[in-house]
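note to self: dont lose this again. the chain is below, predicted strucutre after it. 403 aa total, dont forget to put it in the shared folder this time
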Amino acid sequence: MAPYESDDSSTNAGEAEDVRAGRRKAARYVVPVAVMGVAAATIGLVPALADSGDPDLPKISAQQLIEKIAKSDVEQLSGTVKISTDLGLPDLGGLESSFASGAVQGPDGGSSADPSSKLMELASGTHTLRIAADGPDKSKISLLDSAAEYSLIHNGTDVWGYDSESNEVYHATTSKSGAQKEQEDVPATPKELADEALKAVDDTTSVTVDGTAQVAGRDAYKLLIKPKQSGSTVGAISIAVDSKTGLPLKFTLTPASGGAAVVDAGFTKVDFSKPAASTFDFTPPKGAKVTEGDEVQAPESSQKSDEDLGAGLDGLEGLKTIGEGWNAIAEFDTGGEGVPSGSSGNSDVDGFLNSLGDQVTGKFGSGTVFSTRLVNALITDDGKVYAGAVTKDALVKAANAAQ
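---
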């Protein structure tokens, strides 16, 4: 059980167990991010909260604040969310256009309106989202661009994606109410990001209440989460929690290396009244290309425990987990050769590999470390991969120990 730090000295074992249950209820999303298409780890969270005042709120313990998040029953809201992501990726040496043209077509050359590719744009840069929800069966997320808009609408058994720039539509159906897999693949709201952060809370974590703030005109408490272990690339996570509803309003992850936040996601406007029913209506525009997707199956359970999630990862072929907590490293074998050095003869590819990769050696042999400000991956010359939200030295140490 995590040693939650607060000024409430009366916390007993029963309360601690309630917190564990609350944390598991709040933990719903596991979101992998590929590094060069082979390494997976965490999509991050957010920077320092932009406070517009420190409201005077009743004292609350960290345990009570986590329980408040878990018990939040907000089902109706609308608002605007600003999300900024800075993984610190290097210059791609001219490959950006190639990657962008592949992403805009969707998986296997499919529709540009397919959410599985479109929402991955949130993994970099600054974006504005307009969101609305009315219960588990009605939701809408619109990604606003300077000259275009992408919308993902879930209404009953229908899921619609619409890209105004290409005038393409993606349509899928859900077999059960609440099957919002299309929208859960990439966390887009402070709550989704907070759920992922709370999943990582264990006895390797410090959790405290760090004062109050105002976000989108709402009074909020600030929950501060920090790894106790050294070697993690995660510095701290700050979550602003609405004092009345328990809904996370803003989310901040700062890296251990310092500087700007890896991700900053927060409401700039929020309204808890019921959205108009027409908000979730959609009819393909005249002349739009409509692509029918496979039926989206509802997940068996959206509230798995930490043990269940770990078992699911270990069940993947060839995947092992080294270490625990914030220092966990995924290890698997690609079954092929490692990444070539920047000497392929293709200037664009060589420029990309040389700028992103860092050659390393050890008892394991030699390999290349691909780095971001949050996720790092070591790919050895014989095709083994070690990846996680840990430092380069931690990856090399893990590879050496595996020999």
